[in-house]
Specification:
By secondary structure, this protein is α/β, with parallel strands linked by helices. Helix content is 47%, strand content 13%. It has helices spanning 2-16, 27-40, 56-69, 84-87, 93-112, 131-138, 144-148, 152-161, 187-202, 226-232, 235-245, 268-271; strands spanning 19-22, 44-50, 72-77, 117-118, 208-213, 216-221, 249-252. It is globular and about 55 Å long.
Length: 275
């Protein structure tokens, strides 16, 4: 089944003939970039959008991964932080983020002669609350992984089979996802969260989030790592570091890390809103 999906992806890109990939450096869009490059060569281009919501380390990873694949790589700036519809952090914040992204990528693709803009949305994403997917669709973007029915697990399996060393790279959504809906997002807050997560990764903890609510940082780790973290980490050092970053209080989430946790506050009525 996985081999069949892989061949479908290759055929899809061959039919496109040319494609511009919305490339964040995450495992999904990197797999798309790899398959597109193998099918199209220089007729595929990866483009990474840079803004305050992207960690500098993620940009460096994207550069290294693109160079390893061999695909052409271009960097552009996006300006979602100038849009109050985004910074006010409503439940459909991602709609305005992806609108800005694709309003930037689509004209670029047309200017450079690429008829298609594709992204890394996978089949599992279609079952979560992802208002950004609608924004991308409205602007004509295609999602090859979702079209072929490739799940997140299959993304990692395919990446491993293709020899991509980052096949098990933890998911790293934009830093704005660390804030509860309704709390204003600022550049200073994004930088504070980013520095806190980098600090913990340098201590050896990888699959994590630092959620921010006003002046409180809430550390989320894999549930099986919580005990080890408490027993082996200099907690006072962590508190002092986070306070230096600008937080007043530092807490540890006893439930553990769970992707999309902040969406649990949304009720069915909100999730049913058509954007």
């Amino acid at each position: 089944m996985l081999t069949e999906k892989f061949e479908q992806l290759r055929a899809l890109f061959q039919e496109m003939e040319q494609a511009l990939i919305a490339y964040s450096g995450g495992v999904d869009s990197t797999l798309v970039a790899k398959i597109a490059y193998d099918a199209l060569g220089d007729r595929a281009l990866a483009v990474t959008a840079v803004s305050p919501s992207l960690l500098p380390e993620e940009l460096e990873d994207a550069k290294i991964q693109a160079a390893t694949i061999g695909i052409g790589h271009k960097i552009v700036q996006t300006h979602e932080m100038e849009n109050p519809n985004y910074t006010s952090n409503p439940v459909n914040r991602c709609y305005f983020c992806k609108s800005e992204l694709h309003d930037t990528l689509k004209p670029l693709a047309l200017e450079l002669g690429y008829p298609y803009v594709v992204d890394g949305v996978n089949a599992d994403d279609l079952h979560d609350y992802r208002p950004g997917i609608q924004a991308a669709k409205e602007r004509g973007a295609r999602s090859p992984l979702a079209e072929v029915g490739v799940t997140k697990v299959e993304v990692r399996q395919l990446s491993q089979q293709l020899g991509l060393p980052w096949w098990d790279k933890p998911a790293q959504p934009c830093l704005s996802s660390r804030f509860p809906y309704g709390e204003e997002i600022t550049v200073a807050k994004l930088q504070r969260v980013g520095r806190a997560e980098i600090f913990l990764r340098k201590l050896g903890w990888q699959n994590l989030r630092v959620r921010s609510e006003v002046d409180t940082a809430r550390i989320e780790l894999a549930s099986e790592q919580i005990k080890e973290f408490v027993l082996t980490t200099d907690l006072q050092k962590v508190v002092f570091a986070f306070q230096d970053f600008g937080f007043l209080y530092v807490t540890l989430d006893l439930e553990g890390y769970r992707s999309g946790k902040l969406n649990q506050v949304l009720n069915r009525e909100v999730l049913g809103v058509k954007l």
